[in-house]
């Protein structure tokens, strides 16, 4: 595990990050991808305020990456919430998958598609932002993928315990910063080679 | 920190992420070929080899491949089997290789194929050790079983099986059993009342040479002989021999339909025929038909089982049919139904399971050709893991028995 820099962006009451030096398509996961398997990554983006340990907002998301054996390009799918009961529903036109990506573009696409809400967080308090990524436990999918999808409770449980020695994990952190110093506006899209995207 | 944890806890049951059916971009490609690395393919059963070959021509499905890898790993007792996929020779096709880590293949394995408790019949269990030497498996086991037959038999079982004899569709096996018997008081009394105390024995040794032809498509034919040396219960009486020719035909199919329902069919017919031609002191023919069908969808599963059997002539007690144990007519005690077993049997069972919760209904009759048939019913419920062979803990009740005296059953593979 190592720390990398995060760049923060706020837009529409949400905080997003970029982590251009964080490369999680690597090692054993990359080997599995090159063998034609899909690899699931669990992301957690957390925001702490006041002190580094006081997490006030977090988002947890799963992305599935696969490598096209013939086209030698990556494809990424964001698993969308299937039962939200009114909380944090995604926009209907939110992009859910992208294909024909380089490994860097696939990594960036995943990081671009996770955001934490800023409601209730003071713009003048110091905040710390941390991004944790883990390859999904290969033993997890059967229990995680029930009839209705991936249970957030299981993902929270996964991030509440340390990564196993054979589980790849990465993290990047930045802070303290004040939200009023964070660059506002949507993140710039297509700064990397254009992927084809599906909605 | 506390606030975030509370938020997460509140939110947890409200969220779930749905999975796109085609998460792997390679699932659009067709499997061109499939192979198992090294020389291990020859050690797999014909059933598994057939299932492996059946992915050729299908769209790539890693879930299916991972299940096959797990079956290969278990069958070879390998430490790890990986699925490797590469480009095929034809466009839009891929080649699949199951990579077996051969260096860590285990040569010796200990298994407990059966463990059962029946509140009227006590414990039954078997533990085996299997040594694999090339294409040959040699197994040695100790067991005590008061569930399967009229008798409780305890002793040792030794088995050797050659999985391929030049051709992979033929297997040869040999089994030796040496058992000592214990009889239930009900059986002793019934044997005495029927003046057939001479039918009881205190020990028996079995020699079973057998050949199996694998036809593919899950069909196997086994044939051979069973030589049983029987030591009578009566002191001073000479040993008797029950020597029979044996054959069995078995069909095993497993498939999945378009609605993701998983089906499994297991059917078998067996015949054992003892005649003076084989120098047997007993002359009989024993026919048995067993069919089991299982349907699974998500967390629901249903199992239907059927058994019919018939014995002509006079067979030793260990050949006679039994109902009222941990598998059949649950809720009944076999010694109450027929303490000497029967030479006619018919039985049906239906079992439904949702996740771990299991309910079942059994119906059947056991009788002798000279007696009237009387049908019995049993119902029960409990918890079961992993299909019909999973661990079951249940309470079963006899229906219309004139008593509400439940039977407690626990165990697996009975």
Summarize the structure.
Chain A is of the alpha+beta class. In chain A, 16% of the residues lie in helices and 40% in strands. Strand 11 of chain A pairs antiparallel with strand 1 of chain B, so a sheet runs across the interface.
Name some characteristics of this structure.
heterodimer; A: 199 residues; alpha+beta; four-stranded mixed beta sheet; 4 helices; elongated; disordered C terminus; B: 414 residues; mainly beta; Ubiquitin-like (UB roll); Porin; 2 domains; three-stranded mixed beta sheet; disordered N terminus
Characterization of the model:
The complex is a heterodimer of chains A (199) and B (414). Chain A is α+β, with helices and mostly antiparallel strands. Chain A contains 4 helices and 14 strands. In chain A, the strands form 3 sheets. Chain A has a 7-stranded antiparallel beta sheet with strand order 12-9-3-4-5-7-14, with helices on both faces. In chain A, strands 8-2-1-13 form a 4-stranded mixed beta sheet. In chain A, β3 and β4 (55-67) form a beta hairpin. Chain A is elongated and about 50 Å long. Chain B has 414 residues and is mainly beta. Chain B folds into 2 domains: 23-103, membrane protein fhac (Ubiquitin-like (UB roll)), CATH 3.10.20.310; 108-412, Beta Barrel (Porin), CATH 2.40.160.50. The longest helix of chain B is centred in the first third of the chain and has 15 residues, at 62-76. Chain B is globular, with a radius of gyration of 25 Å. The N and C termini of chain B lie far apart (52 Å). Classes of the chains: A alpha+beta (199), B mainly beta (414). Chain A binds chain B through residues 35-38, 46, 53-58, 61-62, 64, 66-70, 75, 77, 79-85, 87, 96-97, 99, 145-153, 156, and chain B through 1, 3-4, 8, 11-20, 23-26, 29, 60, 62, 82-87, 91-92, 94, 298.
């Amino acid at each position: 595990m190592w720390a990398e820099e995060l760049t923060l962006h706020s837009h529409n009451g949400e905080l997003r990050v970029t982590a251009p030096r964080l490369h999680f398509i690597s090692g054993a996961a990359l080997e599995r991808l090159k063998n034609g398997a899909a690899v699931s990554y669990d992301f957690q983006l957390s925001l702490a305020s006041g002190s580094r340990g006081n997490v006030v907002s977090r988002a947890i998301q799963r992305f599935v990456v696969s490598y096209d054996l013939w086209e030698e390009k990556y494809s990424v799918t964001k698993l969308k919430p299937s039962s939200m009961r009114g909380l944090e529903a995604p926009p209907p036109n939110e992009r859910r998958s992208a294909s024909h990506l380089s490994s860097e573009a696939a990594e960036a696409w995943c990081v671009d598609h996770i955001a934490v809400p800023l409601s209730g967080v003071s713009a003048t308090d110091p905040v710390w932002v941390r991004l944790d990524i883990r390859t999904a436990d290969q033993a997890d999918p059967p229990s995680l993928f029930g009839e209705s999808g991936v249970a957030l409770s299981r993902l929270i449980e996964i991030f509440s315990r340390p990564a196993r020695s054979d589980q790849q994990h990465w993290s990047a952190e930045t802070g303290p910063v004040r939200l009023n110093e964070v660059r506002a506006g949507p993140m710039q899209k297509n700064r990397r080679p254009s992927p084809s995207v599906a909605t | 920190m506390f606030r975030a944890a509370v938020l997460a806890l509140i939110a947890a049951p409200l969220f779930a992420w749905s999975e796109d059916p085609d998460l792997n971009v390679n699932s659009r490609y067709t499997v061109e070929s499939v192979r198992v690395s090294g020389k291990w393919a020859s050690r797999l059963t014909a059933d598994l080899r057939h299932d492996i070959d059946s992915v050729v021509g299908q769209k790539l499905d890693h879930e299916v491949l991972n299940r096959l890898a797990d079956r290969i790993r278990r069958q070879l007792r390998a430490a790890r089997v990986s699925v490797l996929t590469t480009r095929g020779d034809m466009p839009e096709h891929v080649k699949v290789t199951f990579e077996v880590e051969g260096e860590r293949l285990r040569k010796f394995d200990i298994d407990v194929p059966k463990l059962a408790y029946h509140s009227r019949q006590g414990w039954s269990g078997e533990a085996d050790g299997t040594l694999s030497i090339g294409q040959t498996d040699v197994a040695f086991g100790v067991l005590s079983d008061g569930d399967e037959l009229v008798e409780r038999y305890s002793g040792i079982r030794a088995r050797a099986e050659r999985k391929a004899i030049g051709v992979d569709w033929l297997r040869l096996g040999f089994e030796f059993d040496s058992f000592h018997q214990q009889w239930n008081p009900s059986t002793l009394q019934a044997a005495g009342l029927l003046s057939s105390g001479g039918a009881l024995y205190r020990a028996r040794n079995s020699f079973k040479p057998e050949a199996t032809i694998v036809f593919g498509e899950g069909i196997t034919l086994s044939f051979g002989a069973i030589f049983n040396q029987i030591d009578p219960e009566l002191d001073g009486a000479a040993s008797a021999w029950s020597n029979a020719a044996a054959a069995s035909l078995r069909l095993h199919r497993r498939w999945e339909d378009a609605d993701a329902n998983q089906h499994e069919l297991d059917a078998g017919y067996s015949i054992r025929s003892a005649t003076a031609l084989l120098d047997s002191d007993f002359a009989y023919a024993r026919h048995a038909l067993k069919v089991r069908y299982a349907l699974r969808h998500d967390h629901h599963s249903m199992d239907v089982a059927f058994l019919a059997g018939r014995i002509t002539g006079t067979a030793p007690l260990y050949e006679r049919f039994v109902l009222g144990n941990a598998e059949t007519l649950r809720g009944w005690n076999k010694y109450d139904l027929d303490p000497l077993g029967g030479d006619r049997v018919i039985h049906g069972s239906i079992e439904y399971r949702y996740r771990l919760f299991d309910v079942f209904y059994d119906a059947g009759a056991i009788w002798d050709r000279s007696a009237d048939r009387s049908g019995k019913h049993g119902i029960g419920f409990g918890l079961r893991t992993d299909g019909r062979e999973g661990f079951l803990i249940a309470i079963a009740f006899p229906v219309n028995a004139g008593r509400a005296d439940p039977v407690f059953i626990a165990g697996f593979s009975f």
